[in-house]
TrEMBL record:
CDD domains, per database record: crotonase-like (cd06558)
Native species: Brachionus calyciflorus
High-level lineage: Eukaryota, Metazoa, Spiralia, Gnathifera, Rotifera
Entry's family note: Belongs to the enoyl-CoA hydratase/isomerase family.
GO cellular component, one term: mitochondrion
Predominant cellular place of this UniProt entry's protein: other
Protein's UniProt name: Delta(3,5)-Delta(2,4)-dienoyl-CoA isomerase, mitochondrial
Function: Isomerization of 3-trans,5-cis-dienoyl-CoA to 2-trans,4-trans-dienoyl-CoA.
């Protein structure tokens, strides 16, 4: 898969005005991901390493980042579903790859530490690309969601699971602290700091019911088929709304989570100062008055 996004400022010689021309080539071909479009404006990203329980290797992280950087600017995408092929969502980091990293042939501790930091930061950037994608992302979890899987789903907007799902923040069992998002995002998703710490320190498995009470997920489906249908139903509703309103809401929710209320109010005021001039506002108002469904242009 390749993404070509060329932005060119072209000077119009006749009137001196600058115009922004955009060329976007979106082609979603990956080794570790399968990308489909099950409905208009809805994309489905499936982890495609079922033989390895969808374990997350360096290729996976590179392709995930590339995929979501494409989706961020794809005008045909307004909502994204994320799921895993096979028996489960993901088994987390590929321990084979992790052991190879640990055996890097570098004698100096400081230099080896810098190499580790580069890898960790690269993995962090890959998962953060989900959060930075302006389109709402819905995680659909069945079977196991372990370690890095928790890092990944906490970067998503909405999380649903099936009854056979189970979760574990497993990193302490392999001798490390979770370092690509769980410790930073998980506590902000739930208000139960004590339970979050218990799950992190003990690495014990927890069930969909416990995940629901904790606020990690917001819906439990009977099975994987029902889970996919539920996710698609929600994604279709999101995709039918104004893309300016939905994507602006995500951008402001993320900003508000990480900043003071006063700063967030100033941010949304400046944001809507421009966005309230959109045609989407008029279309929504007219559709509401006529009790009809509005159709919104691509961004």
């Amino acid at each position: 898969m390749s993404l070509t996004k060329n932005l060119r400022l072209v000077m119009n010689k006749s009137n001196g005005l600058r115009q922004l021309s955009t060329s976007i080539d979106t082609n979603y071909n990956f080794k570790t991901l399968k990308v489909t479009a099950p409905s208009e404006y809805v994309f489905h990203v499936e982890f495609n390493r079922p033989e390895r329980r969808n374990a997350m290797n360096p290729t996976f992280f590179a392709e995930l980042r590339k995929c979501f950087e494409q989706l961020k600017y794809d005008q045909d995408c307004r909502a994204v579903l994320v799921s895993g092929k096979g028996k489960g969502f993901t088994a987390g980091l590929d321990l084979t790859e992790l052991s190879q990293m640990a055996s890097m042939d570098i004698e100096d501790v400081g230099r080896k530490g810098f190499q580790f930091q580069r890898v960790i930061e690269d993995y962090q950037t890959s998962l953060t690309s989900i959060e930075k994608c302006h389109k709402p992302v819905i995680a659909l979890i069945h079977g196991h969601c372990i370690g890095g899987g928790i890092d990944l789903i906490t970067a998503c907007d909405i999380r649903y699971c099936s009854k056979n799902a189970w979760f574990s923040v497993r990193e302490v069992d392999v001798g490390l602290a979770a370092d690509i998002g769980t410790l930073q995002r998980f506590p902000k998703i739930t208000g139960n700091d004590s339970l979050v710490r218990e799950l992190v320190y003990t690495a014990r498995n927890f069930t969909p019911d416990e995940a629901l009470k904790l606020g990690l997920i917001s819906h439990i489906s009977e099975d994987e088929s029902a889970l996919i249908n539920k996710g698609l139903e929600t994604a279709k509703i999101i995709a039918s709304k104004s893309p300016i309103a939905v994507q602006g809401s995500k951008i402001n929710l993320v900003f508000a989570r990480d900043n003071k209320v006063e700063d967030s109010l100033k941010f949304v005021s400046a944001w809507n100062g421009g966005m309230l001039q959109s045609e989407d506002l008029i279309k929504s108002a007219m559709a509401s008055m006529s009790k009809e469904e509005a159709t919104f242009s691509k961004l």
